[in-house]
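By convention, each integer encodes one residue's backbone shape. The lines below illustrate.
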Amino acid sequence: MSAPTTVERRPRPSGRAPVPTLRILWSGERDGRLRVLRSGELAVGREPEGERVLELADDPLLSRTHAVLTRRGDQVRVTDRGSRNGSWLNGERLLPDTPTPLMDGAVLRLGDSLFLYRLEPAGVEDAAVDGLVGVSPAIRALRADLARIGPTPASVVLLGASGTGKGVAARALHELSARAGRFVSVNCAAIPAQLAESHLFGHKAGAFTGASAAAPGVFRDADGGSLFLDEIGDLPLPLQPKLLHAVEEGGVVPVGASRPVSVDVRLVVATSVDLEQAVTDGRFRGDLYTRLAELVLRLPPLAERAEDVLPLLAHFAPELPPLTPDLAEALVLHGWPFNVRELNKVATELRIRGAGRAELDVDLVRDRLDLAPPIANVSAGAAGDSTQEPRRGPPDRAELERLLAEHGGVVADVARATGRSRKQVYRWLRDHGLDPSAWR
């Protein structure tokens, strides 16, 4: 089996080192400004002092010089400068005057402002693609790939977990193709096995019991356009050689017919399972996978796209009242195991529960985000106060490295595998001096 061309979800290496950046996610409202962190210090606060400063005068909870980010070589550390209201890294309070290293994807809260530290890959392209919202490097690279691939006739396999937007990407490929025919979408997992052949290729009248009239099937419905076969890994094995024949010959044989009918279809398929492993296990034909996978696109999970959470929320529910900083932080730090689809449901709940409110607080969706109940009457003034989540014993460094390798450096996946929170995993990483981006 010849290897398909795989287009990774992250930008391909350009030979240049990634650039440390700080993005303002929230400061009274959704922001998005990006600041490149140059060598030396950047002071952040309401009226910060220093050679280079990031001034956020409208955040009353910021101290004058609240915190300092220091870059030395390719390392960036954050230091709370004894601020009145404290500094928080991935939901955990920092000790004052204690430099703490930042890792790619770290979320900082200073006062009521949220920031994301990102090692921005050099040379990331972007393109205008409807429906794919976000500013993260991963989503920008995906949009660029879709714009590049869309006008070609190549068949495409979309890989990604449930809810990452494979259907949106498939429709974008069709829109970018300028094909005159329809975009037809089929969920292979929802087709009864005994009707799958007829559903795909059509049938003649009387071909089987109940076939009182002829039906064209989805291939002919998509003639001149694009056919999207979602969950292709669930296609019955006996039907796979017939699909291969249809793709290679440009024609289908309806059930009950003896002659093929020509079709001109651009095929896009998607799956949340490992098709290469399915080939190895004998559950999916290798020759069919090779033919379908002229190009492979991997869609990133939302857990890797923290900077896209608030823009996506605004996309799904543009009329929402303002969020409190606590809600904005909770949304950004949530692990999003069900990806963009889950965020859409949260947007719906906020819209319904928050109707008529002046602002939306985290209590509206506390249960959905699996947050602990608030702790009342606890002062936030002392570092290491009782609002901090209790520390758990860190794992062995070798075990943590194994988990990072197994999960491609995705902290959210490591958290799920260990049954711990992302905040806890970030603590372990910091304790061992490990950067998860080295495993990506």
The CA atoms of residues 205 and 214 lie 4 Å apart. The longest helix spans residues 339-353.
